[in-house]
Amino acid sequence: MKKLTLLLIISLTFFQYGNAQRYLTKNGQISFFSDGPLEKIEAQNNQVNSVLDVKSGDFVYKVLMKSFLFEKALMQEHFNENYVESDQFPNATFVGKITNPEAIDFTKPGTYDAIVEGKLTIHGVTKPVKEQGTFQVSTEAIVGKSVFKIKLADYHISIPGAVTGKIAEEIEIRVDVRLDPLKF
Fold first, then answer.
1. What is the value of pTM for the model shown?
2. Model pLDDT, residue 168
3. Three state DSSP letters for the chain
4. What pLDDT is attached to residue 50?
5. In the chain, which stretches have pLDDT less than 50?
6. CATH topology of domain 21-181
7. Per-residue pLDDT, 38
C-alpha cells in the first residue's frame, strides 16, 4: 500500500510539473491600427486564446474576428462583411515557435527579447511570419508582447476601389497577452 501511495504521489508530481510548462489565456488582447489618408481605423479584441509551452517553445493564438470592437459600428460592420468576411473566415490563427529559447529563462523573473516564427492565417490565407517581441516572466504569469505590421494584400483582403489610396494598405498589430499556468 505504501508503494502504491508513493507511486501515486510521484506520478501526480510529474503530471503537475508537466502542466506547469504550459501557460494559457482566453482573454488576451490584440489590437490593430491603420493610419490612412482618409481615416484612422483602430480596433480592439479582448477575447484572444493563446497557449505557450515553455518547454518546447510552441506558441499558438486563435482570434475570433467578430470580437474586434471599433469606435464606430459602421466600421465594424464593414470590417466583418467587406474586408475579412468573418462569416466565411471566422478566425485568425498563429501557430509558431520561439526560435531563440536560449535567450529566455522562464524560471527567472525578468523581461526577455523573443523571436517567434510560424504561420499566420488571416482571411483563409496562411503566410510564414517571423516577429520580435518580449516575454515578461513573473512568479504568477508570463506576459507576451509584440508589435508588427502586415500588408492587407498579402492576405487577399481587398480595399474597395472607392477608397483605394485613402485607407492604409498596411496595418499595425499589437499583441499583449497575460498567460497563466495551466492548472487542472
1. 0.84
2. 82
3. CHHHHHHHHHHHHHHHHHHCCEEEEEEEEEEEEEECCCCEEEEEEEEEEEEEECCCCEEEEEEEHHHCEECCHHHHHHHHHHHCCCCCCCEEEEEEEECCHHHCCCCCCEEEEEEEEEEEEECCEEEEEEEEEEEEECCCCEEEEEEEEEEHHHHCCCCCHHHCCCCCCEEEEEEEEEEEECCC
4. 96
5. 1-19
6. Lipocalin (2.40.128)
7. 73
Nearest to 179 by CA among 54, 12, 95: 54
> Given the C-alpha cell 499583441, which residue does it identify?
175
Alpha carbon distance 29, 45 (integer Å): 6
* Spatial CA neighbour of 58 closest among 111, 92, 22: 22
Residue 6 pLDDT: 35
Structural domain spans, the chain: 21-181
